[in-house]
Design goal:
Layout: E1 6-8, E2 13-15, H1 45-51, H2 67-72
Antiparallel strand pairs: 1-2
């Protein structure tokens, strides 16, 4: 599943950033309206990551290097 920022132009829903999907790909779309007082985001993944970064001591220090291990349970990669 992916989440993207988009807007409704009065006729169709338009992504605010490029979306890498095959043409004519069937999709299930969940629409969640944003509050009117929420500032418009630039929609980039880097902006989202920066806004949601965490320095929690509960997170493993090697999370970025070993994300497949923590997300999917695959063996850790050699360092």
């Amino acid at each position: 599943m992916i989440a993207i920022n988009a807007h409704f132009d009065g006729k169709v829903i338009v992504p605010d950033e490029p979306v890498d999907l095959p043409r004519n790909q069937a999709l299930v779309v969940r629409i969640e309206a944003l509050p009117a007082d929420r500032p418009h985001e630039d929609g980039s993944a880097l902006t989202w990551l920066a806004e949601h970064a965490s320095d929690s001591p509960r997170l493993p220090a090697d999370l970025s290097d070993q994300h497949d291990h923590y997300l999917y349970g695959v063996p850790k990669k050699d360092a």
